[in-house]
Design brief:
The complex is a heterotetramer of chains A (about 650), B (about 325), C (about 180) and D (about 625).
Chain A: H1 3-8, H2 23-34, H3 39-45, H4 49-77, H5 88-123, H6 131-153, H7 178-206, H8 219-251, H9 264-298, H10 305-318, H11 334-346, H12 348-364, H13 371-394, H14 396-402, H15 406-436, H16 442-468, H17 485-515, H18 553-556, E1 573-577, E2 584-589, H19 596-613, H20 616-620, H21 622-633
Antiparallel strand pairs in A: 1-2
Chain C: H1 2-23, H2 67-79, H3 82-86, H4 108-117, H5 132-145, H6 177-182
Helix pairs in contact in C: 2-5, 4-5
Chain D: H1 2-29, E1 46-47, E2 71-72, E3 86-92, E4 104-106, E5 109-113, E6 120-124, E7 132-136, E8 158-160, E9 163-168, E10 172-177, E11 183-188, E12 203-205, E13 208-212, E14 223-228, E15 234-239, H2 244-247, H3 265-268, E16 286-289, E17 294-298, E18 319-324, E19 330-335, E20 351-356, E21 362-369, E22 374-379, E23 385-390, E24 397-400, E25 407-409, E26 421-424, E27 438-440, E28 445-451, E29 453-459, E30 473-479, E31 486-492, E32 497-504, E33 513-515, E34 519-523, E35 528-533, E36 539-544, E37 554-557, E38 563-569, H4 573-580, H5 594-597, H6 601-604, E39 610-615
Parallel strand pairs in D: 2-33
Antiparallel strand pairs in D: 1-20, 3-39, 4-5, 5-6, 6-7, 8-9, 9-10, 10-11, 12-13, 13-14, 14-15, 16-17, 17-18, 18-19, 20-21, 21-22, 22-23, 24-25, 26-29, 27-28, 28-31, 29-30, 31-32, 33-34, 34-35, 35-36, 37-38, 38-39
The chains are: A mainly alpha (about 650), B alpha+beta (about 325), C mainly alpha (about 180), D mainly beta (about 625).
Chain lengths: ~650, ~325, ~180, ~625
């Protein structure tokens, strides 16, 4: 059909939203279109980013609880010297599971869950760009996590550390299928993270509200864009590494066999080429939370928006140049070390600038000391210590002593708990009404904040001293008389305080679900688009898609937010805009709910899990996957016509 | 070299000093303390700046009105820009300074390693250390396990190898750590400056008994070292009484000799620690237990309960054999 | 189709997982201590007149197909110089161990007996040189060389010069018909 | 007149030349002792006169004579008639192990020395079909088979003064009455519990029986022992490691090069106590110079193969000793391969010749194709090297420094624990293993049956448990450049060059035999027994025996005056163990890596144990 012919066609008689179709009538129609199918199958079929994001977050929090329980177990074992509460082998499994779960099953997924939940809302769109891929991503993540934990419960869990250095994880020293469970879990989470990241990048680039050019995106969306791109560039590295490890272990390839000119260090390079960016994949979304919370609770736009955005981008790029600082003790050429020292130190410049911008925003604004902001303040106090110890260990002469000691344990817990979990808890408190329609208890929130904050310092600050007093990491016991008793006892007490505090936080979450104060659409008087719709948002997010002409639309436009008209209401449809300046571009159908992503995930899981046991699974396992994918992509209706948007 | 300790009193509290970074008894260890002190000062200053700024920022308008008109969401004071420039400059200068300090310390550490006068090879095994002092005269090679004796003030080069997985060689009082990687030969340079007894430990996770893979370091005067070295060159003394002889016989004809070597006897195993001068060491089983008769009984009778998962099997010795073995092992001075 | 597939996949995964439980059970100390040795499990086919093969020694259960035991056995196979004669199963001074030909029986207790007692023409007796636990571990590993053991419990290769095809992929060598009669 | 004088003189001269020519050709074709050939041509090497007496048609010792020429002067079989060679009779030993020992023939009796269990058969050659006169069954201990690194082989007996002397695998030396097969004495010399075995052929001279032990892969301490031929009592024993008093190094010792000079090097060139399990067994060949009263023999490899475990030069392994036969005192020693990395034993045969030096002098020399791939010419009085040249493909060494006498290793080929090294040439069996060459005074050439095998090697910590292997290496061998695994080379020791070479597909594991008829015989591992022209290397005749040939062919004059050629056929030994011990070719490291080089051997030959005897039709 030529454009001329098309112009002659009478306008299609499809109902569209607009001034003439609004209010409850529109709500009813949109609700019918965007609702999940009924029943359990419908629940499995959901492609709603809010469902998926919520599932991601809840699942990740469950893993956080499990891994936290393991942490308590470790702390009890280490509470006194020569303790024999937990055996050596079990302890090794526990710390492996703790690290693996925290890194792969909690930290990255919870951040992606938040991103999946919030990004379409912040962008003013109805769903992510690839909703079924998004659903697939969650199921893969769930399957991977289940694989690891079922293995652990059945006593075939990994025991070689979350970093799985060969040869210890190789076919000779990694006994049985423990390592394979771990390595295949990596494959699961990589697939999940990549799927979610691809979907997020496409959403951000193509589904911004009209007018929301790149320079008007909320900082959290910027953080999401940067981290998703980082996921796309870094995760293949570890997927490759773990694939080679599996192949060494299953079919006897020689990738990591030094005798046959493989190399044990190859793993470390590939792993840390992923592993270091991963820290920022966890940390950058957290800075996104911080930027949003700081702005809202200072009641002021963020100071230095371009600086913060450029810092995010710079961190994302620099993060790929630092991996060698995890390998200073491996005996690589000294000349290279200086480069990585300088690079590692330079990454603190963008972070330092972000901290400046947050403090400046607080300075310039009128801060409200509510729970989310408390977490942010706790974050800055804690994270900066972690950042500064990070500067220390970037220096080779210091790192060679501090590396692989409890000093490092302290450092990265300051960075990851202080730098990511504190903002996350603040973010959960902040966006809780957006997900549930109710606010969390402020009083309980403040109590748990102070307990977490102080308990954390008590648990982790003494680890610096334990490290300096010569306590290496990953030891299940230590001898008396080396000055380690007191720091370890304090750490254990602190960890118990944190555990109680987290429990309080969870109680707050659960209790507030029923009895929390009902939330207005914008309970915090925030400025970004997710607050433009009700709490919790309807399935279709926005009755009319909003139009934006500033970075803080709700502050600047208030109730009179301009909207788009003309999207179909009886078919799922979203509006595509241009990448840079977000001009309306196309209308695009959005995927219907479907059970096939779930089935595809099952088929893929079956293939992955069987390929732990037989290489043929890779061949035969593709058949069910292909069937599921065919059904997933089976075209249901004739291609919808493309029409210019009438706004 | 205790300056670091003076500045950071809390770091040395309760520290007995055999395995601490704040010992500084080696050249590199001392460099560490200096550089660490510099970093601590700079970082503390930076932290205080951030903390004070944050407190001030939150405190300043904490009671300001709750609602604001839209205009004031965006206003900025003129102080922001100069503060930003100042802050950036401060970070940059600080980091450059620290990088340079780090670089020169690294150079100084590298220089310590030049011109070593003693060379030894440490081979890591799951979970013990095999130590060999090489000499141009091959017959003056000394082999021991889980202990290193070093003469004070003499630069030492240590070649590091691994027989199985990756380990890390770390004597915090003397120097930083260096990994031992199968298929690669790495090296460490030590320059001990002060006599004393120190402890090193494996610092890279290496399997089930990673926690109990330590080694004892003795830094002693040159004369003491030479005495020790000469003694190490001697084969084990013959058993002196019937009980010891029974132990000797058991050791050399039964399970023990399949893995362990005792120089001068038919026990010539090469896969477990050399026990020629076992009783002269400070600890049993790579630092797992202090050396004394009671621990020796416990260890020989049931090593798997002392260090579960280690490579020495629980043999199930009869009481007579156990007495005899311990009696014999205690003669291996 | 979908639900059936799902349930069968779940069942498969569950079975695979459950089998793992004892497959990787680690025992740092062998159950039976001391100098007891496996009884010579010698069937008619090896020593005529000895009667049918006795039932499998109950002690074997903890070692047969146990990944931890096989791994220890693999280490001991090198440490105790088994590899010096039998190499990686191809044989040399000692017989080949990967060809499914067993002079004195290929069952784990028979192999253990061969290790403890020694065999004519050069196989040394390891009685008193190895603990019983080590003997069982070695026997458990030796069985992997000819593919007698479940594949998920064995190691594909060691960190050494590449040698035999990976044991995770080796076909089970059929025992001689008379041997398999006994099993 | 003057013209007639010229004519007469020229006719006389022509006659004289013709006579001389005739005389020369007559001599070549007659059954003369080999020593007659010495000095005929100053451009050729000739066997040491005293060590190679006139050929009496017997074959009394594996090397044929003390000079170890393996040359039979019998000349009935020639290039022209060799094609008609046919089987005269065969004899089965009933064994299926590697059959390396040459039969001995003395006064119309053939003595066949079988591999394990070392039975000896005396065959009466005067009767049709050569029936057995007696059988000697020594009944050695079965456990000895478990510590024989390379098959339970035996390399032959020695006939002297009506007695046969031989070694049993379980470390006994026995003397047998050659007429009756009665055992006269039996002396135990070693312990199988320590990994020792004895496989070599003794050498008997001056009333001494010289024997050595095997077990370089088992951590033995190598020695050479002299027994009193009459009583079997030990006269002296010279160890290959340890203090000078154990190695019988005394005041008469003069090493040609500084590397071998010094006190107690057998201790000082090892880590503490390592010399006690350091190897250096003497399992190869001994030559004897009756004039100098010196014996020459090589010592085996140091143990373990993993050289990282034994720092130092590891004296006195992998080198060559000259000793006084009466006292055993060392005269000189030269270490061919100090701190051996690749199992390059130095036990190969030493052939004693008079060697024409470039300046025209004739030097009493010792020539030997060493396992490390170099062909050495030593002055046998001092040990000094006169010439050294590679005769096979070598990349593991960069040559021999003639000033210091020291082998120059190639550092990139040194195996380190945890890192395999690829493509090391020659492999552990060297450019040539134990199977000796033959030297023909007719051509002045040495005929070397040897190998073209390279390897990948990975070393690892070796545990020492007495009576078990002490190696610490994984090895995979394979064919060297060109793809052929065996080479038969005719080498001119004077011109220091290869004259011809024959590429053999399989490794050559059989010794060579040269005859006065201008022929050279050798066998292949798939059972072909071949005769080639000694000058051109042209294949003239071949016969497929029942099993692979790894034994010494011999030639003797039968009771009917005919020349006979005999060869043992029975695959085995290190190279053939894949067949004789039924090894699995899927494991490339099996049999110390040799299996990988001969994966196809099971398809090409089967076990056996026969002696084939050939002659021209009557």
């Amino acid at each position: 059909m030529t454009p001329a012919e098309r112009a002659k066609q009478p306008p299609a008689k499809v109902p569209r939203d607009g001034p003439d179709l609004t209010g409850p009538e529109l709500h009813e129609k949109l609700e019918a279109t965007w609702e999940n199918p009924p029943g359990f199958i419908g629940w499995l079929s959901s492609v709603d980013h809010k469902d998926i994001g919520r599932r991601y977050i809840v699942t990740a929090l469950v893993f956080l609880a499990l891994a936290g329980a393991l942490a308590i177990a470790m702390r009890l074992q280490l509470s006194k010297p020569d303790n024999d509460l937990i055996g050596a082998a079990r302890y090794n499994e526990i710390f492996t599971m703790h690290g693996t779960t925290m890194m792969f099953l909690f930290a990255v997924p919870v951040m992606q869950g938040m991103q999946v939940y919030l990004t379409p809302l912040m962008l003013g769109t109805r769903n992510t760009a690839f909703p079924r891929l998004n659903a697939f991503s969650y199921w893969m993540y769930l399957a991977g996590g289940a694989l690891l934990w079922v293995a652990f419960v059945l006593n075939i869990g990994p025991d070689m550390g979350w970093f799985a250095y060969p040869p210890l994880s190789g076919p000779q020293y990694g006994v049985g299928k423990r390592v394979d469970m771990w390595a295949q879990m990596i494959t699961f989470t990589e697939v999940a993270a990549l799927a979610a990241a691809v979907s997020l990048v496409a959403t951000i680039l193509k589904q911004k509200a009209p007018g929301m050019g790149l320079a008007r995106m909320p900082i959290f969306v910027w953080a999401t864009l940067v981290t998703s791109l980082m996921v796309i560039f870094s995760m293949p590295s570890v997927a490759l590494a773990s694939g080679m490890l599996l192949s060494d272990r299953l079919v006897g390839t020689q990738f990591y066999n030094p005798v046959e000119r493989g190399d044990a260090l190859l793993w470390q390079h590939l792993f840390w080429f992923f592993g270091h960016p991963e820290v920022y994949i966890i940390f950058l979304p957290a800075t996104g939370f911080v930027s949003e919370i700081v702005a809202t609770f200072s009641r002021r736009t963020i100071v230095g928006y371009p600086i913060v955005v450029m810092s995010l981008v710079a961190t994302g790029i620099l993060a790929f140049g630092l991996w060698v600082h995890h390998m200073f003790a491996t005996g690589l050429p000294r000349i290279g070390y200086s480069f990585y020292t300088a690079a590692s130190m330079s990454v603190s410049i963008p972070t330092g600038l972000q901290i400046f911008c947050w403090i400046a925003t607080l300075w310039e604004g009128r801060p409200r000391l509510q729970v989310p902001l408390l977490y942010v303040i706790g974050f800055i106090f804690t994270f900066v210590i972690g950042g500064l110890t990070g500067v220390m260990i970037a220096a080779v002469p210091l790192d060679l002593q501090l590396h692989d000691t409890y000093f490092i344990v302290a450092h990265f817990h300051y960075v990851l708990i202080g730098g990511a979990v504190f903002p996350l808890l603040g973010a959960i408190t902040y966006w809780y009404p957006k997900a549930t329609g109710r606010l969390m208890s402020d009083r309980l929130g403040k109590i748990s904040f102070w307990m977490i904050f102080l308990g954390f310092q008590l648990a982790f600050f003494p680890m610096h001293i334990a490290g300096i007093n010569g306590m290496p990491r990953r030891v299940y016991t230590y001898p008396a008389g080396m000055g380690l008793e007191l720091p370890n006892l304090l750490s254990t007490i602190g960890s118990l305080v944190v555990a109680v505090a987290v429990l309080l936080f969870v109680i707050n979450l659960v209790v507030s679900l029923r009895s929390g104060r009902k939330a207005e659409p914008n309970p915090w008087d925030a400025a970004s688009l997710e607050w433009a719709t009700s709490c919790a948002p309807p399935k279709y997010n926005f009755p009319h898609l909003p139009i934006v002409d500033s970075r803080t639309p709700l502050w600047d436009a208030g109730e009179k937010l301009p909207v788009v008209h003309g999207l179909r209401v009886e078919d799922r449809e979203v509006l595509l805009t241009t990448v840079m300046s977000a001009k309306p571009d196309l209308r695009e159908p959005s995927a219907e709910p479907s059970p096939w992503p779930f089935i595809a995930a099952l088929a893929t899981s079956a293939m992955f899990i069987s390929s732990i046991f037989s290489p043929w699974a890779v061949v035969f396992g593709t058949v069910p996957v292909a069937v599921a994918l065919t059904a997933w992509f089976w075209p249901k209706s004739p291609k919808p016509e493309r029409e210019p948007v009438i706004s | 070299m205790r300056r670091g300790g003076a500045i950071l009193p809390f770091f040395v509290t309760g520290c007995s000093g055999v395995q601490t970074m704040m010992g500084g008894e080696g050249a590199e260890g001392a460099n560490f303390i200096q550089l660490f002190t510099v970093f601590m000062i700079v970082c503390t200053v930076m932290y205080l700046i951030v903390a004070i700024a944050l407190i001030a920022a939150v405190w300043r308008r904490r009671n300001a009105a709750l609602t604001l008109d839209n205009r004031r969401h965006h206003e900025s004071s003129n102080a922001v820009r100069p503060a930003l420039i100042g802050w950036t400059a401060l970070i940059a200068v600080g980091l450059i300074g620290l990088t340079i300090a780090s670089f020169f310390t690294d150079r100084s550490n590298a220089a310590n390693g030049s011109n070593p006068q003693l060379s030894l090879t440490v081979t890591a095994n799951q979970w013990w250390w095999d130590v060999e002092y090489s000499s141009p005269d091959a017959s003056k090679t000394v082999r021991t396990a889980n202990e290193i004796h070093l003469p004070v003030g003499i630069p030492v080069e240590i070649k590091l190898k691994s027989n199985d997985v990756i380990h890390s060689f770390w004597i915090p009082n003397l120097a930083g750590k260096q990994d031992l990687i199968p298929g690669r030969e790495t090296d460490a340079q030590l320059l001990p400056r002060k006599t004393g007894l120190y402890r090193g430990q494996c610092a890279e996770f290496c399997g089930v008994q990673h926690a109990q893979m330590a080694l004892d370091i003795t830094v002693e005067s040159k004369a003491d070292f030479q005495r020790w070295y000469a003694a190490q060159l001697q084969p084990a003394p013959p058993p002196a009484n019937p009980l010891q002889r029974a132990g000797y016989n058991y050791f050399t004809t039964r399970e023990c000799g399949s893995c362990h070597n005792i120089s001068g006897t038919p026990a010539t195993g090469q896969v477990a620690p050399d026990l020629t001068h076992f009783a002269s060491r400070r600890s049993i089983a790579a630092g797992a237990l202090p050396m004394n008769t009671g621990n020796l009984y416990g260890w020989v009778a049931d090593p798997q309960s002392q260090k579960p998962g280690n490579r020495m099997p629980t043999v199930g010795l009869k009481a007579d054999d156990l007495h005899a073995l311990v009696a014999y092992l205690e003669t291996l001075k | 189709m979908s639900s059936r597939f799902r349930s069968s996949a779940l069942a498969l995964a569950l079975v695979a997982a459950l089998c793992g439980c004892d497959r990787e059970e680690r025992q740092t100390r062998g159950k039976p201590l001391g100098e007891t040795v496996p009884a010579s499990a010698s069937p008619d086919t090896v020593f005529p007149g000895t009667g049918k093969l006795p039932p499998l020694d109950p002690r074997a259960a903890a070692y047969e197909g146990n990944a931890a035991a096989i791994s220890e056995g693999q280490r001991l196979y090198n440490w105790m110089n088994c590899s010096g004669c039998h190499f990686h199963g191809g044989g040399g001074m000692g017989v080949a161990l990967m060809d499914g030909k067993w002079r004195y029986g290929g069952r784990i207790d028979q192999i253990a007996a061969s290790i403890v007692e020694g065999r004519p023409n050069g196989m040394p007796a390891w009685r008193g040189k190895l603990t019983e636990q080590q003997v069982w571990q070695l026997a458990a590993y030796v069985r992997t060389l000819s593919g007698q053991v479940r594949k998920d419990a064995v190691s594909a290769r060691a960190d050494e010069l590449s040698n035999t095809p990976p044991q995770t992929q080796t076909k089970r060598e059929p025992l001689s018909p008379s041997d398999s009669d006994q099993q | 007149m003057r013209r007639s004088i010229i004519v007469v003189a020229s006719i006389a001269a022509m006659l004289a030349v013709a006579l001389l020519f005739w005389a020369l050709t007559q001599k070549r074709e007659s059954d003369l002792g080999t020593s007659q050939f010495g000095g005929m041509s100053s451009s050729k090497a000739a066997p040491a006169r005293a060590a190679s007496p006139r050929d009496d048609g017997n074959w009394t010792m594996p090397g044929k004579d003390y000079a170890s020429t393996r040359f039979s002067a019998l000349s009935q079989v020639t290039p022209r008639n060799v094609g008609k060679l046919q089987v005269a009779f065969t004899f089965s030993t009933g064994t299926t192990e590697g059959f390396e020992a040459p039969p001995l023939v003395v006064d119309n009796t053939m003595y066949v020395i079988a591999p394990w269990p070392n039975n000896v058969f005396a065959l009466d050659l005067t009767k049709p079909g050569a029936p057995a006169k007696w059988v000697y069954e020594p009944k050695p201990a079965a456990a000895a088979k478990g510590v024989a690194c390379c098959g339970p082989v035996n390399r032959g007996a020695f006939y002297s003064d009506g007695r046969l002397y031989m070694n049993l695998l379980d470390n006994h030396t026995v003397a047998i009455d050659a007429a009756t097969g009665k055992e006269l004495w039996r002396t135990k010399l070693g312990d199988i519990q320590q990994g020792q075995t004895m496989t070599m052929a003794p050498l008997v001279a001056e009333g001494k029986v010289l024997v050595g032990n095997s077990g370089g892969e088992m951590g033995v301490r190598g020695w050479l022992t002299a027994l009193d031929a009459a009583t079997g009592r030990i006269a002296w024993r010279a160890y290959s490691t340890g203090p000078d008093k154990d190695a019988l190094i005394g005041t008469n010792y003069r090493a040609p090069y500084p590397q071998d000079q010094g006190k107690d090097l057998g201790v000082k060139s090892w880590g503490p106590e390592q010399w006690k399990i350091g190897g250096g067994p003497v399992w190869g060949w001994i030559s004897y110079d009756p004039e100098l009263k010196l014996i020459y023999y090589g010592t085996g490899n140091p143990g373990p193969w993993n050289a990282e475990q034994r720092p130092g030069d590891n004296k006195w392994t992998a080198g060559i000793f000259a000793r006084d036969i009466a006292t055993g005192q060392a005269r000189w020693f030269y270490q061919s391969t100090p701190h051996d990395l690749f199992d390059h034993d130095d036990i190969n045969e030493s052939i004693l010749v008079d060697w024409p030096a470039p300046n025209g002098q004739r030097i009493p020399a010792l020539i030997r194709p060493s396992r490390n791939g170099y062909f050495y010419v030593h002055d046998r009085r001092t040990g000094r090297i006169l010439a050294v040249d590679p005769y096979g493909y070598i990349n593991a060494y960069k040559g021999v420094d003639l000033k210091t006498g020291r082998l120059i290793p190639a550092p990139e080929k040194e195996p380190k624990e945890g890192r395999a090294v690829r493509n090391i040439c020659p492999g552990p069996p060297g450019a040539k293993d134990w199977n000796p060459s033959a030297f023909s005074p007719v051509t002045g050439l040495i005929y070397i049956p040897h190998l073209n095998i390279c390897m990948d090697m990975g070393v690892k910590n070796a545990n020492y448990i007495p009576g078990t292997p002490f190696v610490g290496a994984d090895v995979k061998m394979y064919a060297g450049p060109g793809g052929n695994r065996g080479v038969f080379t005719a080498w001119d020791p004077v011109a220091r060059r290869k004259v011809f070479e024959i590429k053999e597909d399989l490794p050559l594991w059989s010794p060579a035999l040269a005859t006065g008829g201008g022929l050279v015989f050798y066998g292949t591992m798939d059972g072909w027994f071949k005769a080639i022209d000694a000058r051109s290397g042209k294949l003239l005749w071949q016969f497929r025996t029942g099993s692979g040939i790894i034994g010494q062919p011999i030639s003797y004059r039968g009771p009917d005056g005919r020349q006979y050629i005999a060869v043992p056929s029975g695959i085995g030994g290190w190279a053939g163990s894949i067949v004789s011990a039924d090894l699995d070719p899927r494991d490339p490291t099996a049999a110390l890596g040799f299996v990988n080089a001969v994966k196809d051997l099971k398809k090409r030959t089967t076990k056996g144990g026969m002696v084939y005897v050939f002659a021209l039709p009557q």
